[in-house]
Amino acid sequence: MPRMVEVVIDSVRVSLTNQQRIVVLRELNTDRYLPIWIGPYEAEAITIALQEIEVARPQTHDLLKNILTNLDAQLVRVEVLSLREDVFYGNLVVEVNGQTVNIDSRPSDALALAVRAHVPILIAREVMDAAGVIPEQDIEPTESKPAPSAPAEPESEGEGEDRLSIFEDFLSNINMDDLTQPSDDEDDEEKPDEGGPEPEK
């Protein structure tokens, strides 16, 4: 098992330029952040749970949580285990009948479940080292620039600056208020995976 660091959900935000959503994870006891692009439906699901908004009927992630509960299975934690070709890969760790079961999951779905079940969120250290940023130290105001593809693994010196420019470009076009209402983008297609700082084409 890779070395892990625990994070919390800092915020769910929306870009002013293209209305794409991003969930920002913050490493515990530090100011290092991990931004992950997510779909509008997953952003809505995470926001509803964070703000404890009551809904008339169970949403998809409520249903998944209820299924686990009724099957006497316990969600122990959720994980982001790897970053390959700008796509994050998640995992649900579930205990059932005294056994630990790992279930492949998109990070956005894993996070939506984590906030409902109140379980820890863990990130592989190599993922945090590759894609995490420290805005206070590393980002200075500059003009927005086109976002290049984010490296999937730590690279040589200088590659970090490219990765930070991606996050800087997002911050320069961001609505700094957290999402407070469900998304209106009903006709958006659900994304199959989350990309790194560069959204999936």
Descriptive terms for the model:
Bifunctional nuclease domain; 9 strands; disordered C terminus; 31% strand; 201 residues; globular; 29% helix; 9-stranded mixed sheet; alpha+beta
Count of separate DSSP helical elements: 6
Number of domains: 1
What distance separates the N and C termini? 31 Å
Largest sheet: 9 strands, mixed
Q: Which spans have pLDDT < 50 for at least 5 consecutive residues?
A: 138-164, 176-193, 197-201
CATH topology-level name? Bifunctional nuclease domain
CATH homologous superfamily - what is it? Bifunctional nuclease domain
- Specify the helix fraction band: 25-40%
Rg computed from alpha carbons, rounded to a whole number of angstroms: 17 Å
Number of strands: 9
Secondary-structure-derived class: alpha+beta
Envelope shape: globular
Order of helices and strands: EEEHHEEEHEHHHEE
Assembly state = single chain
In terms of DSSP E residues, the strand content is 25-35%
Average the pLDDT over all residues and give the rounded result: 77
CATH architecture: Roll
Biased composition (Acidic residues): 183-201
Biased composition (Polar residues): 172-182
Pfam families: BFN_dom
GO molecular function, one term: nuclease activity
